[in-house]
């Protein structure tokens, strides 16, 4: 069975392209790139790539990752500016063997430039206007989903090979240099062909405290069914954060195991996109409940066959 799962409705068209791409050549890396590029390149999605959310200085700093479940090779970049596809940079860094798999800031930019990746401004008029309109607002009132959504995709093919990729511009008005979960291995992403692939979206600082992408795969390795593992992990970890802080931030988790069984965990209403073999790509909504979450067909879906 080949299965793709990705975060938020914005990944729907990308998943359709990924499915077609995968159907053409059965290359999961190309399918993953097709999905993530579609979101990175679309300035209407103000949280990833082109037109992303700026930091306190009005600068767009992006984070991204890639991991291959067969080799455990991973690449990641953080707080990188003016690289049109941060995912491509992460993918390229995964090809480094022993060192230099995770680069940030100027070093990440230099690596991308030296290796011929497309360089250019990610800022557009709408993003700049959003920055100037909102730059006087109360920072304490910002919530994780104030336009702050990471594109994440987990894929497994019919041989049990798994890959995962992520890309985001991170939290709106973040401090320059801030990294969330997205480029941090085990937190925002993980893949291991012996188990599956997982990724997270939401408030990076909360996700990192639980190293949630690795944690959910460990539960599956111990025999839990993916939906149960993801939904109970997020529900339980939310309670842990509440017990320490009196509140928690938004956390959502997607996972697919090596057999193609998928799982979702969330503590907020969360839309995700799913494709199983050559069935139509569909969007769903996961609704949080105290013991896990429930999955519903998405009323706002734009499914095509
Ligand atoms: N989950 C993305 C971030 O916190 O930056």
Task: Please render the helix and strand layout as text.
Elements: E1 3-7, H1 12-25, H2 28-40, E2 62-68, E3 74-80, H3 86-94, E4 102-104, H4 105-114, H5 125-134, E5 151-156, E6 162-168, E7 189-192, E8 196-202, H6 204-210, H7 212-221, H8 226-245, E9 251-257, E10 262-266, E11 270-276, E12 282-289, E13 292-297
Parallel strand pairs: 3-4
Antiparallel strand pairs: 1-5, 1-11, 2-3, 2-6, 5-6, 7-8, 8-9, 9-10, 11-12, 12-13
Describe this structure in words.
- This protein has 305 residues and is of the alpha+beta class.
- It has a single domain, classed as Glutamine Phosphoribosylpyrophosphate, subunit 1, domain 1, CATH 3.60.20.30.
- 30% of the residues lie in helices and 26% in strands.
- The protein has eight helices and 13 strands.
- It has helices at residues 12-25, 28-40, 86-94, 105-114, 125-134, 204-210, 212-221, 226-245; strands at 3-7, 62-68, 74-80, 102-104, 151-156, 162-168, 189-192, 196-202, 251-257, 262-266, 270-276, 282-289, 292-297.
- The strands form two sheets. It has a nine-stranded mixed β-sheet with strand order 4-3-2-6-5-1-11-12-13.
- The longest helix has 20 residues, at 226-245.
- Bound molecules: glycine.
Write a compact overview of the structure shown.
With 305 residues, the protein is of the alpha+beta class. It is 30% helix and 26% strand.
Number of helices: 8
Widest beta sheet: strand line-up? 4-3-2-6-5-1-11-12-13
CATH architecture: 4-Layer Sandwich
Uncertain spans:
301-305
| Total domain modules | 1
Q: Termini, distance in Å?
A: 18 Å
Task: Report helical residue fraction.
Answer: 25-40%
Tell me about the largest β-sheet.
9 strands, mixed
Instruction: Tell me, briefly, the overall form.
Output: globular
- Computed Rg: 18 Å
Order of helices and strands: EHHEEHEHHEEEEHHHEEEEE
* Structural class label: alpha+beta
- Which superfamily, in CATH terms, is the homologous superfamily? (Glycosyl)asparaginase
Bound molecules: glycine
What's the CATH first level?
Alpha Beta
Instruction: Name the average pLDDT.
Output: 92
Instruction: Return the CATH topology.
Output: Glutamine Phosphoribosylpyrophosphate, subunit 1, domain 1
Number of strands: 13
Strand content: 25-35%
């Amino acid at each position: 069975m080949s299965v793709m799962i990705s975060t938020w409705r914005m990944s729907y068209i990308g998943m359709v392209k990924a499915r077609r791409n995968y159907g053409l050549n059965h290359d999961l890396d190309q399918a993953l790139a097709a999905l993530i590029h579609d979101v990175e390149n679309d300035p209407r999605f103000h949280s990833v790539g082109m037109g992303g959310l700026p930091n306190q200085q009005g600068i767009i700093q992006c984070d991204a990752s890639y991991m291959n479940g067969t080799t455990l090779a991973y690449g990641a970049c953080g707080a990188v500016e003016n690289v049109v596809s941060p995912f491509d940079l992460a993918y390229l860094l995964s090809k480094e063997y022993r060192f230099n798999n995770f680069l940030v800031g100027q070093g990440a930019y230099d690596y991308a430039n030296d290796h011929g990746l497309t360089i250019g401004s990610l800022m557009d008029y709408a993003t700049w206007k959003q920055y100037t309109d909102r730059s006087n607002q109360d920072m304490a009132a910002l919530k994780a989903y104030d336009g702050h959504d990471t594109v994440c995709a987990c894929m497994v093919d019919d041989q049990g090979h798994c890959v995962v990729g992520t890309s985001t511009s991170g939290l709106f008005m973040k401090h320059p240099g801030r990294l969330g979960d997205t480029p941090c291995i085990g937190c925002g992403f993980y893949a291991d062909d012996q188990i599956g692939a997982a990724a997270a979206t939401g408030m990076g600082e909360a996700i990192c405290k639980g190293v949630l992408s690795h944690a959910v795969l460990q539960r599956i390795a111990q025999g839990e069914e993916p939906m149960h593992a993801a939904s109970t992990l997020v529900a339980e970890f939310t309670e842990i954060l509440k017990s320490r802080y009196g509140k928690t931030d938004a956390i959502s988790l997607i996972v697919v195991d090596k057999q193609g069984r998928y799982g979702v965990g969330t503590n907020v209403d969360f839309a995700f996109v799913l494709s199983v073999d050559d069935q139509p790509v569909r969007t769903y909504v996961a609704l949080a409940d105290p013991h896990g979450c429930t999955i519903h067909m998405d009323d706002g879906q734009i499914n095509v066959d």
